[in-house]
Each structure stands twice: as C-alpha cells, then as structure tokens.
Amino acid sequence: MTAVNARKRNRRSLAALAGAAALAAASLGLWATTGATASAQAAGLPAPDHVVVVVLENHAYDQVVGSSDAPYLNSLKAGGADLTQSHALTHPSEPNYYMLFSGSNQGRTDDGCVSVGSMTAPNLASELIAAGKSWGSYNEGLPEQGSTVCSSGRYAQKHNPWFGFGNVPTDTAQSFDQFPSDYTTLPKVSFVIPDLCNDMHDCSVATGDGWLKENLAGYAEWAKSHNSILAVTFDEDDRLSGNRIPTLFYGAHVAPGSTTDTTYNHYNVLRTLEDLAGLTAHAGNAAAAADITGIWN
Questions:
Q1: DSSP string over the chain
Q2: Does any domain span residue 51?
Q3: Residue 184, Cβ neighbours under 10 Å: how many?
Q4: What's the structural domain count of the chain?
C-alpha cells in the first residue's frame, strides 16, 4: 500500500469513528448537555427561557396552603408543585432576602436600609450578568427605575437586596409598572416584589392573593406553553410555625399536582434558580445546597 493510500484510508477510518461517536452521542441526548443548558441538565432540571420569582411576606405554610383566603395560590399549587417542607432561615425579613439572593445574609440582621452598592459578594444577578444572561427586578411602588430611596409610601428597600450590591446595576431595578405585557421580553430571571400591602406584610392573605392573580396570572398561564416558570415563595413565617413557609412552582416542566416533603430553604431555591438559568457559578451557601427535585416532568 502506498503512503498516499494509507493516509486516505486513515482519514476514512477517523471520519467513520467520528460519525459513529456523533450518532451515539445524539442517541443518548448528550448534545443537550453543552452550552447554557449544561448545568441544568447535569442537575436533572429543565432549561426554561424565563423564570419569574415572586416573594411574599410573613405567613406560614398553613396560613396559605389550603386557606379559603388564597384561592389563586392554591390553584397554582393544584396545577403546579408544592414544597411542603420549605423553610425560611431567620428573622426578620431583610436577611432572608439577602440569603435568597446571594446565599448569605451579608451581615444583615435587621430591617434597616443598606448603604447602596456597599457589597461586592457574588449573587444571582451578578452571576447572570457575568454569564451574559439578563436579570431584572420589578418592585411595586419604586418611585422610578433605579431609585435607591429607602422608602416611599408602601415601598420598602429592605425587600430589595439588589441595591446592596455594587455589582448589580441599579437600573436593572424597575417599578412594577414596567413589568412587560409581552412576556417574551422578560429577563432570563427576574424577581417581583409587591408593596407592603400586596405582599401580605400589612394587608391580608386575601389581598395578596388577589393581587397575585390580577398581575401574574397572565404570565403563569403563558409560561406553561412557552418554556417558562413562575415561582412563589415567602421571606419568613409569622414566627409561630418553625419558619415553615409556602413555596410553589408553576409552569412548563413542572409536574401538575406534584409535591415534595424534602426539607428545603432559601439556599436550595437560590441554587435551583442558578441551575435553571444554566449558571455554573453558585453564590455563598447555594454552592453546597441541593437542587429542588421531585417536581419536574
């Protein structure tokens, strides 16, 4: 055999091997574990286009789940997933928000206003931005986009941890009036923070439930057929129930009527949000937390 013929034969053999390997990989679905979906796929999670997280206030699991005052939230439970042993991590409100957003209370132990941009620790928003993905928050009552005011009417900065971090642009904080009607324009991950009445802090469960239905039901139903997810959780309980709180997931890939009695907390939710977004970085205590499982179809 001539050297030229030998080289041609080797090239044909290598091409055949490469083709066989590609076919095997495709048949195993390994193609899906590359790029932005790698982290989510590795964790057994879906890779949604959009995740919207709503944080409500100061109510225990049994005050909401099964309550006639919360028909909409209970419809989300029935059509989505219920984390029956979801827990907040501390009291009062503000440190829980920092834990959910950055995997640490960042030294916050009260509900006081923060020095804007004074923290540099990694967090959900900074990780998304570093990965070239979009982030935003929609804060009811915020006087204007990017406003760093401590309080205004029923708006309270203590429920908006993104303002504490210098690595999160303030203009990614928008008023809830800016929540888009074209849901395809939503960021990859966004938080919705109702004001002190509509989050159930100062007003009733029924008030918060009605606000959620009026303002997020359209997105929730759209999410089911548009590869997107709605998550609803609470910052803390009423201090009388071991900090057991409602946490619900709804939308595409969420098995309707599913429940899990695994004990989860804000760090698990943060880790899951990071992995749903296909991030490889994990902030603070989320790095050692398990993903939420048992609710995905």
A1: --HHHHHHHHHHHHHHHHHHHHHHHHHHTGGGGSGGGHHHHHTT----SEEEEEEE-S--HHHHTT-TT-HHHHHHHHHSEEETTEE--SSSHHHHHHHHHHSS-TT--SSPPP-TT-B----HHHHHHHTT--EEEEETT-SSTT---SEETTEEGGG-GGGGBTTS-GGGEEEGGG--SSGGGS-SEEEEE--TTTTSSSS-HHHHHHHHHHHHHHHHHHHHTTTEEEEEEES---SSSTTB--EEEEETTBPTTEEE-S-EEHHHHHHHHHHHTT-S---GGGGGPPPP-S-B-
A2: yes
A3: 10
A4: 2
Structure tokens at 36: 């932005």
Q: Residue 29 sits in which domain range?
A: 1-33
Query: Taking the complete model, does pTM exceed 0.85, yes or no?
Result: yes
d(CA 212, CA 203): 13
Is the bond into 92 cis (omega within 30 degrees of 0)? yes
Question: What is the rounded CA–CA span in Å between residue 195 and residue 68?
Answer: 22
d(CA 231, CA 295): 12
Asked if residues 227 and 63 have their Cβ atoms less than 8 Å apart, the reply is no
Per-residue model confidence as pLDDT tens digits over 256-288: 999 999 999 999 999 999 999 999 999 999 999
- For 77-122, write each residue's pLDDT tens digit: 999 999 999 999 999 999 999 999 999 999 999 999 999 999 999 9
CB contact at 8 A, 64 and 76: no
In CATH, what number is assigned to the domain containing residue 110? 3.40.720.10
Q: Is residue 297 in a domain?
A: no
CA distance 223 to 227: 6
Pair 224, 189 in one domain: yes
Structure tokens at 263: 């004990």
**How big is the chain by its Cα radius of gyration, in Å?**
22
